[in-house]
Amino acid sequence: MKKLLLTLACVFAVSTAAFAQVSASFSFTDNGLYGGTNTSGTFNSTDTFTLSVFGTISGMPAGFSADGYSLWLETQIANSFNTALTITGVTYFQFTNPNQPTYPKLFTDTIGADSGYRTDQEGTNSGDLGATALTPSQNFANGANVHLADYTFSISGAAAGTYLLQSTTTANTPKHSEISYDDGTSFPTQDAPQIAYTITIVPEPATWSLFALGALGAFGVNLLRARRRS
Fold first, then answer.
1. pLDDT score of 186
2. What letters, b where the CB count within 10 A reaches 16 and e where it falls short, cover 97-127?
3. Which residue among 112, 132, 183, 186 is buried most deeply as judged by most CB within 10 Å?
4. Residue 16 lies in a domain
5. pLDDT digits (tens, 9 = 90+) for 109-147
């Protein structure tokens, strides 16, 4: 009996260790299009931009692969930036069956948000940006870094400043950004660490021109006053 219990304990320990080795991650890139690094960009207050999201999962049981993902984003409420930013569309590559397919998605949801942030939502839905596989051929294997989707964002009336757009994590209950896989009996999910994109808003060229004209006008008025005094 003791040998049986010991054997079962060893099997359980090995099985637990195998599952504990599973890890998942996402990454952002703007493909160098917006003047900063691949994870930062500079924009006017009414710009649009696109971010590519890649995913990786490692340590799955032999013979199985990832079959879908969930992704939520959040952005800061400073200067009402969350209401100036909207997700307007998506192109899926690896998985093409979207979890919540309606756009635009607004950053107005307090559920799952970190302090000082709002998460995206779709109407009354949570705003899950992920998707699942339509066929087994859409799955991806251990360790592959896979292009999941391109998300398009629109900025409208944003105040000048620097803001963060970031993914949710296991701490953001119930909105965990995660990758799911088929282990043969169920579809476990693996939470992914947080990723972030830095958005810097600068005044538009026309606004800079107004600033320059205003400064020039003020200089002229002051010069005229000085001449009159003399």
1. 82
2. ebbbeebebbbebeebbbeebbbbbbeeebb
3. 112
4. no
5. 999 999 999 999 999 999 999 999 998 889 998 999 999
Residues in the chain: 230
User: Domain containing 108 — which CATH number?
Assistant: 2.60.40.680
How many angstroms from the chain centroid is the CA of residue 186?
Answer: 27
Nearest 5°: the CA angle 63, 133, 98 is: 150
Residue 68 has pLDDT above 90, yes or no: yes
**pLDDT greater than 60 at residue 42:** yes
Q: What is the mean pLDDT of the chain?
A: 85
Does residue 78 fall inside a structural domain? yes
pLDDT bracket for residue 8 (50, 70, 90) = very low
pTM to 2 decimal places: 0.81
Alpha carbon of 183 to those of 45, 61, 191: distances in Å? 46, 6, 16
How many domains does one find in the chain? Answer: 1
pLDDT of 224 above 60: no
Report CA Rg, the chain. Answer: 24
Q: Bridge-partner residues for 218, per DSSP?
A: none
Q: Assess if residue 40 is contained within a domain.
A: yes
Q: How far apart are CA 186 and CA 84, in angstroms?
A: 40
Structural domain of 155:
23-229
